[in-house]
Amino acid sequence: MKIGDKKAIVIGATGLVGQALIDELQQLEDFSAITVIVRKKSDTLNAYSKVTQLVLEDFLLLNDEDVSSHTHAFSCLGSTIKQAGSKQAFYAIDYEINAHFADLIQDKNIHFLIVSALGADANSPIFYNKVKGELEDYLKSLSIYKLSIFQPSLLIGK
C-alpha cells in the first residue's frame, strides 16, 4: 500500500480517545481520507481537511456501502452505565453498535481497530467488563481481515 492509499472510517470520534485518534490520522501521510460517523455535525471536526462527516442519528443504520471503500475501521465508541443512563442503554452502545460495525467489516479487506477495556471478560461478574468481554469474543468469532483490540486502563482527560 502506497502513502496516501489508506482510508479510515471512525465511530466514537467525538470522545476523548476518538479526538486524539482523529488528530493523529490527520497528521499521517498514509491516510488520505477519514470518514467520521456522527449523530450530528461537529464544528470541531470541520477543522480537519481529511475528515468527511457522515451524519446518522442511529448508528445501526450504517450500511455496507458506507464502509466498503475503507482500508481501516476504528471504533473508539464507548460509554459508561452512568453516562448511558442504564445497563440496557450501555449495552446498546458498547455491544450492539460495535457488533453491527464489525458485521459490516467482516469478509472485507479492512483492518478493524477497537478500544475495549482492561479487564474485559465475558465471565466477569462486573457488568461493564462482561459486556466488553462478550464483544471481544464476538469480534474474534467473525471473519475479520485483521483485528486489533486495545485494552487501556483508566482513561483520564477533559
Automatic annotation (TrEMBL):
SUPFAM superfamilies: NAD(P)-binding Rossmann-fold domains. Pfam families: Semialdhyde_dh (PF01118). It comes from the Bacteria. GO terms for molecular function: NAD binding; oxidoreductase activity, acting on the aldehyde or oxo group of donors, NAD or NADP as acceptor. Residues 8-84 form the Semialdehyde dehydrogenase NAD-binding domain. Gene3D superfamilies: NAD(P)-binding Rossmann-like Domain. This is Semialdehyde dehydrogenase NAD-binding domain-containing protein. The lineage of its organism: Bacteria, Pseudomonadati, Pseudomonadota, Gammaproteobacteria, Moraxellales.
